[in-house]
Amino acid sequence: MPEKKTKRLSIIIPFYNVEKYIAQCLQSIYAQDISEEDYEVICVNDCSPDNSREVVLEFQKEHKNLKLIEHRTNTMQGGARNTGLRAAQGKYVWFIDSDDFIKENCLAKLLNILEQRNLDILRFDFQTVDENGHCLGADTVNFPANKVTEGKQVFLHFKDQSDFDNSWRKVTCFTWSRIVKRSFLTDNNIFYYQNFYGEDSPVGVKCYLFAKRFLYLPERVLYYRQRQNSDMQQRYQPENKGFFYASQYKTLVETIKIAETVEDEEVKAILFKQIKLYASDEKAGFRFLLSFTPQQRRQFYEHLKKIDDLRLVFPYIGKKARFTLISQQGIKLLHGFKNKITYHL
After folding, report:
1. Reduced to 3 states, what is the DSSP secondary structure of residue 10?
2. In b/e form, how buried is each residue of 136-162, taking b as 16+ CB within 10 angstroms?
3. How many angstroms separate the CA atoms of 279 and 286, rounded?
4. Which tens digit of pLDDT belongs to each residue from 20-57?
5. CA triple 96-99-101, angle to 5 deg
6. What is the pTM of this model?
7. Which domains does the chain have, with CATH numbers?
């Protein structure tokens, strides 16, 4: 019996309510310059209520390397990505959002760079497009190109730049702008948290902290679609406001936990610089906590009580936010969570 060929790449696509876009995403993934035997496509259905699943099934009829995994409960983007990662068999993994698409015939070059340079992470640029695929703008990163470095050099490079906060978000967020060695993720226990927004950033921080071989390629190979009903836009809607701001706390807690383990004092200081920026009223929106409607406030606390180690944020958030969290109504809605928190007023 012939030995099973190892996949060079696993492309992981969580999907939810994207029947209008997922066909273009999959079409771009199959308009490539490597054999389908060299890569696999893993689509994770996160309980999508529309016909996205049927679109995927049609592609599966034509492409043997496409796997469909069904979730019984919705775990949001983070949980669906974890499902795909655990099922992946490729040497490298690329998480692509189901409403985005990639450049034609780009995989051969990307994989050759990854393999020849033995990279943990390859980061590249992307093109922002509107709902209909028309170009809006391009992303670039002010970082030395085509040079193998340790991932932590990303933080050291940006530390003194005037747009530090923007640069930080560019490199730590945008999961789909990098391809990562699968064993690097699993060996370092790098997975996404689920059932909250903002899962990208803590994973990005971990990736760059642990990566020994990182390279930035200044080429646009992915098209990032901005659309009105996307997951990104839905989080800003009034009905999700409480959940969105609770997710800010979740991101902050996870980033603090990572930063506390860093031994390099210079890198650690950079991480806490960003934590303080992120936790300020202006950056994280905590100034709006007192403006919640009763429904938004209840939603906020219902999600907040699911966050372990919430006490870690207290030294970094403003006094107004701290006061709001320990208000009588807040304590009541947290259902006794008060005992788990050490307050720093």
Report:
1. strand
2. eeeeebebeeeeebebbbbbebbbeee
3. 8
4. 999 999 999 999 999 999 999 999 999 999 999 999 99
5. 60
6. 0.90
7. 9-233 (3.90.550.10), 239-340 (no CATH)
